[in-house]
Structure formats: structure tokens, C-alpha cells
């Protein structure tokens, strides 16, 4: 005897229908419509609605019953739409493989795109730039990943660039475009002869439809100048 969850048929039909509709509407947030994405969306829905089991072969009459339940179909449709959005915006392992069955060409994922952060490191008594300092950008206690290998974190300061440092953090996934979130960054600085110091700054970001990979120079945040004090001076002050 085999049992079968009638909801599978209904949900599969509903999810496939939604994918076709969203593709026709050319929704910007749809990143992929391959078989795996569809199966993930179907699982998402099936895990959120009560199953309805029947013995295989006796399904026909029940099937008609379910397919004509308009409230049930409306509910499934709403859950399926949520699932489709979430699956479409979540990076999953199989997506590093070529998406042979995917007909959506755009690589669009809702993302929090960061501007570049620029700051200067100065000596507290001379206001001269400090070179050779190690500057580390952190978010939630961990070093922040940069957009690509051309950016370093930790980065280093140089005399020739007047103690400047710049970061470009890699985008973070958002559920949808227009989401607003405040990111609290931390900068950790180590420079020889100076006290180790920590600085904090907040960046409010509104998510975009796509992940940005081109640098817009207008899109930059200047962090307050960071002033470091020599260790000896600091220690003398402590003794006085
Ligand atoms: Zn896919």
C-alpha cells in the first residue's frame, strides 16, 4: 500500500504556475527558475501546510475536492509566493554549478550594498599621518569580507597617502529591495609605538534589487579622522 500527500500535486501545480507568471512579469528579484529552485520552493510550502494523505489510486475524487477549494488555493498561493521570494534571494550550494535549466538570465539578488569607507590615521600630538598601521574592519565581531581580492582587510596605511585607509565591504543578502538596516562597524587599529585602539561607526543602508559590483566613486563614506596617541605619552599621563 502506498500513501500519497495530495497537497504535493496542488502545491507543485501552484508553484510552477507562479514561476511562469513571475517570469512573464519579468520580476527583477527572480534570480533563477531551475528545477532545484522549484523543488526548494515546493518543499518550503509543503513544510508549512498540513498534509492530506490518501491511499494511492483512490486519489481521483479527493483530488477534485482539493483543487476546487478556493480558500485553500489562495492560502497555498500566498505561502508559495513567500517561498519563491526567499528561495530566489538565498544563495544555495548547487548554484555555484551552471544553471542549465534556468531560463532567467539576470543575476539579480536583493542586497545591502555598501559604499566605500575612507578614513585617515593621525598622530595625536603632531597631527602627522601615521604609516605602517594595521587597520581591521569588523562587523558583529568578525572581520568583514571585501568585494574582491584587490581590497585588503586588514589594510595598511602609508605616509605617501597621508595615513589614508579605504575599505569596500562585500554586499550582504537582503530578503527584498527597500529593506532598511543599520550596520554597526568596528575599526581595530594596531600601530607600532601606539596604543591599540577601537572605533565605531554606524551605516544605515537600504537594500537594492541587485548586488552591486561596480565602484561608484560618488558612493563613499568619510569616517571621522582617527587620532592615535604614542604609548609612552599615554603611560606618562597615567602616572601623573
Ligand atoms: Zn535555481
In a nutshell, what does this entry contain?
The chain has 240 residues and is α+β, with helices and mostly antiparallel strands. It has helices spanning 6-24, 35-46, 59-67, 70-89, 231-239, and strands at residues 3-5, 53-55, 111-112, 116-123, 134-139, 142-143, 155-156, 164-167, 172-173, 180-190, 197-206, 220-222, 226-228.
Description:
The chain starts with a strand and ends with a helix. Strands 5, 6, 7, 10 and 11 form a five-stranded antiparallel sheet that branches. Strands 4, 8, 12 and 13 form a four-stranded mixed sheet that branches. The protein has a two-stranded antiparallel ribbon with strand order 1-2. It contains five helices and 13 strands. Helix content is 29%, strand content 25%. It has helices at 6-24, 35-46, 59-67, 70-89, 231-239, and strands at residues 3-5, 53-55, 111-112, 116-123, 134-139, 142-143, 155-156, 164-167, 172-173, 180-190, 197-206, 220-222, 226-228. By secondary structure, the protein is an alpha+beta fold. It has two domains: 3-96, no CATH class; 111-239, Sandwich (Immunoglobulin-like). Zinc ion binds at residues 32, 34, 36-37, 99, 102.
Any idea what the CATH architecture of the largest domain is? Sandwich
Structural class: alpha+beta
* Distance from first to last alpha carbon: 88 Å
Assembly form of the protein: single chain
Helical fraction:
25-40%
Low-pLDDT segments, ≥5 res: none
According to CATH, the homologous superfamily of the largest domain is Immunoglobulins
Q: What value does the Rg take, in angstroms? A: 27 Å
Kindly provide the name of the CATH class of the largest domain: Mainly Beta
| CATH topology-level name of the largest domain | Immunoglobulin-like
Average pLDDT, rounded to a whole number, is: 83
Ligand kinds: zinc ion
Shape: elongated
Count of the domains = 2
Biggest pleated sheet: 5 strands, antiparallel
DSSP helical segment count: 5
Let me know the number of strands: 13
Q: Which percent band covers the strand fraction?
A: 15-25%
Please provide the ordered H/E string of secondary-structure elements.
EHHEHHEEEEEEEEEEEH
Amino acid at each position: 500500500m502506498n500513501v500519497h500527500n495530495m497537497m504535493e500535486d496542488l502545491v507543485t501545480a501552484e508553484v510552477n504556475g507562479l514561476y511562469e507568471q513571475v517570469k512573464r512579469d519579468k520580476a527583477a528579484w527572480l534570480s533563477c527558475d531551475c528545477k532545484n529552485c522549484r523543488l526548494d520552493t515546493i518543499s518550503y510550502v509543503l513544510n508549512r501546510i498540513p498534509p492530506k494523505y490518501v491511499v494511492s489510486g483512490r486519489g481521483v475524487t479527493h483530488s477534485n475536492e482539493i483543487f476546487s477549494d478556493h480558500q485553500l488555493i489562495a492560502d497555498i498561493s500566498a505561502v508559495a509566493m513567500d517561498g519563491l521570494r526567499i528561495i530566489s534571494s538565498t544563495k544555495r550550494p548547487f548554484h555555484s554549478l551552471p544553471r542549465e535549466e534556468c531560463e532567467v538570465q539576470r543575476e539579480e539578488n536583493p542586497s545591502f550594498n555598501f559604499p566605500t569607507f575612507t578614513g585617515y590615521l593621525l598622530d595625536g600630538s603632531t597631527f602627522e599621518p601615521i604609516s605602517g598601521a594595521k587597520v581591521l574592519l569588523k562587523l558583529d565581531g568578525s572581520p568583514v569580507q571585501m568585494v574582491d581580492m584587490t581590497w585588503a582587510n586588514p589594510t595598511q596605511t602609508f605616509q605617501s597617502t597621508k595615513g589614508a585607509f579605504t575599505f569596500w565591504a562585500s554586499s550582504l543578502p537582503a530578503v527584498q529591495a527597500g529593506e532598511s538596516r543599520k550596520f554597526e562597524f568596528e575599526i581595530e587599529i594596531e600601530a607600532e609605538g601606539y596604543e591599540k585602539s577601537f572605533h565605531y561607526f554606524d551605516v544605515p543602508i537600504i537594500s537594492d534589487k541587485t548586488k552591486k559590483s561596480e565602484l561608484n566613486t560618488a558612493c563613499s563614506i568619510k569616517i571621522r579622522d582617527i587620532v592615535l596617541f604614542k604609548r609612552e605619552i599615554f603611560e606618562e599621563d597615567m602616572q601623573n
